[in-house]
Amino acid sequence: MNATVIIPSLNPDEKIISTVKSLIDEGFDDIVLVDDGSDEEHKVRFEEATAFPGVTLLVHEVNKGKGRAMKTAFEYIFNNRPNKPNVITVDGDGQHLATDVKKCIEKLEENPHSVVLGVRNFSGKDIPARSKFGNVCTKMVFRLLCGIKVSDTQTGLRAIPFEYLKMMTEVDGDRYEYETNQLLKIGSDNISYSEVPIETVYIDDNQTSHFHPFRDSARIYGVILKFAASSVISCIIDIVSFRVILFFVPRIIEEALRSSIAGVLARIISATCNFLINKKVVFGAKGNSAKSAVRYLILALCQLGASLGLVALFTEVLNAGDWLKTLIKIIVDTCLFFISFKLQRNWVFKTEKGNSSKDV
């Protein structure tokens, strides 16, 4: 198989040996293991694995996370395996069968510019609840907010063309959130991707997994949480700015005009802060700030107009009083929040264009 297999691992058990052996039996002759800061007790497994021909070991002296381990392997392969056109990431805990790894590579060879995802079926009764729940939630978020249709958002079995390796080393995240950010990058850059059904294997209810549901889920949904936090912060800035500006606007001016002046200036201040926070912190955008600012202004005006128009429409249709009108505004602005997230990610702060089209 003309591909390099990457296996990042932390404190592996004997299953990593059987994983390596099965891959070799399927014809893979280039396997890169990454010891992500394992303790001395478990290092013996890596020593046993490197006894097989074609196995290379890369070592992190301390634990840096699965994402960082994958980046280390990508960097190594980019610099040392220029003749290997493809790589594929595999978990070392026995969840990915060598036959499925081979199927993903064969699929990639049919579509050499497409990322291939090995996807599991989550409908079975033997699927751990945390895995099923996590996949359902993330799949919905990807579909609604990011426009990415992926059956298995948590899969670690991913075949990647060599041409994307450099880009993959620049994707944000060092731990489990890295794999989520990979998919987001694939979607935002319009990189072609396809799916291959694989066996769903969970050993001992997936007890050997190092995934921490709360901590790592927070990292996975980090960009969305930061976007929400940015909106809250901007709202506070808007309110505080309005009050401060109102204090300094002379009272000789008509009250309605004073409020309008304070409201407009406060919105300019809060929108500027929101733009900078989203650009630098939420989306980490690089590139032409002026173009992003113009796009942001267009989106903000459209969002404001949509909010006013829809609230007025539903208020009129439902003959709503103040309480119902408030509820309508909450619902409308919540929907616009999610639409704004998607547009800001894929348009306002988009700095690169993909070079292929999505086929899923």
Question: What does it look like?
Answer:
- The chain has a 7-stranded mixed beta sheet with strand order 3-2-1-4-6-5-7, sandwiched between helices.
- Strand 1 (about 5-10), helix 1 (about 15-25) and strand 2 (about 30-35) form a beta-alpha-beta unit.
- The longest helix has 30 residues, at about 290-320.
- Helix 1 packs across helix 4 (about 100-110) and helix 7 runs parallel beside helix 8.
- The protein has 12 helices and 7 strands.
- Helix content is about 55%, strand content about 10%.
- It is an alpha/beta fold.
Secondary structure elements and their pairing?
Blueprint: E1 3-9, H1 15-25, E2 31-36, H2 40-49, E3 55-60, H3 66-80, E4 86-89, H4 98-110, E5 115-119, H5 129-146, E6 158-161, H6 165-168, H7 177-188, E7 193-197, H8 213-220, H9 222-248, H10 255-282, H11 289-318, H12 322-348
Parallel strand pairs: 1-2, 1-4, 2-3, 5-7
Antiparallel strand pairs: 4-6, 5-6
Helix pairs in contact: 1-2, 1-4, 7-8, 9-10, 11-12
In short:
The chain is of the alpha/beta class and 360 residues long. It has 12 helices and 7 strands.
Keywords:
single chain; alpha/beta; Spore Coat Polysaccharide Biosynthesis Protein SpsA, Chain A; 2 domains; seven-stranded mixed β-sheet; 7 strands; 56% helix; disordered C terminus
Supply the CATH architecture of the largest domain: Alpha-Beta Complex
Distance between the termini: 25 Å
How do the SSEs run, as a string of H and E?
Answer: EHEHEHEHEHEHHEHHHHH
Query: Could you give the order of strands across the largest sheet?
Result: 3-2-1-4-6-5-7
